[in-house]
Specification:
Helices cover 42% and strands 22% of the residues. The protein is an alpha+beta fold and 176 residues long. The chain has a three-stranded antiparallel sheet. The protein has a three-stranded antiparallel sheet with strand order 4-5-6.
Length: 176
C-alpha cells in the first residue's frame, strides 16, 4: 500500500527509475531523502536499488532490491538485475498481450454463440433465454434480464432471465 502513495513524478527512487528508465541506487536507506516509505527506512538494510522492468520502450514495473550491511551492491549486481528485469518486463508485456488476445477471442466466441442462437431458433423466449445465458457466462453477471417493451402498458416483460441461485429478485413485469 505504501508504494501506491508514492507519486511517479517526484524525486523518489521509484520515480527516478520509472521516469528515466534506469536503475536508481541508494547507499543509505535510513537517511536518503529519496526513500519515501517510512517502513523501508526502518528496515535493517543499508543499500537499495530500484530496477525498472521495461519492454518495447515501455516500463512494465519495477523490482526493489535491498542489501544488508554485509553486502555491497556491485556493478555486476546492477548488470545482472538489469538483465533479469528486462526479461521480466518482456514476460509481463507478453502476458498482457496474451490476455488481450484471449479477451478478443472470448468476445468473438460470445458473439458467435449469440449469432448461432438467434439464427437457429424461432421461439423468441428460447432465444432470449440462450442469449441471457451467454451474457451471464461472458460477463460473469449475477443477474441478466432480457425484456421486451410493450408501449400500450409502458412496461417491460422479461423474456430471458438468468439469476443467481440465492436471488430474491422477482422478474415480473417491470414499469418503464
Amino acid at each position: 500500500p505504501a508504494l501506491s502513495e508514492i507519486p511517479l513524478d517526484g524525486d523518489s527512487l521509484m520515480a527516478q527509475a520509472i521516469q528515466f528508465g534506469k536503475i536508481a541506487i541508494v547507499d543509505d536507506l535510513k537517511n536518503d531523502p529519496r526513500v519515501g516509505i517510512e517502513v523501508v527506512r526502518n528496515l535493517s538494510y543499508k543499500q537499495g536499488m530500484v530496477v525498472p522492468m521495461s519492454a518495447q520502450n515501455r516500463i512494465a514495473g519495477a523490482a526493489f532490491i535491498f542489501a544488508t550491511d554485509k553486502r555491497v551492491i556491485t556493478e555486476d549486481d546492477r548488470d545482472l538485475m538489469q538483465s533479469i528485469c528486462t526479461l521480466l518486463g518482456t514476460a509481463i508485456e507478453k502476458a498482457r498481450f496474451l490476455q488481450k488476445e484471449q479477451m478478443a477471442v472470448k468476445r468473438l466466441k460470445a458473439m458467435d454463440e449469440v449469432a448461432i442462437t438467434v439464427s437457429s431458433a424461432l421461439d423468441v423466449e428460447e432465444i432470449a433465454e440462450n442469449v441471457a445465458e451467454s451474457i451471464q457466462t461472458f460477463f460473469g453477471s449475477q443477474h441478466v434480464v432480457i425484456a421486451r417493451y410493450d408501449a400500450s402498458s409502458d412496461m417491460f416483460f422479461p423474456l430471458g432471465v438468468r439469476k443467481a441461485a440465492n436471488s430474491i429478485l422477482d422478474h415480473t413485469a417491470i414499469p418503464s
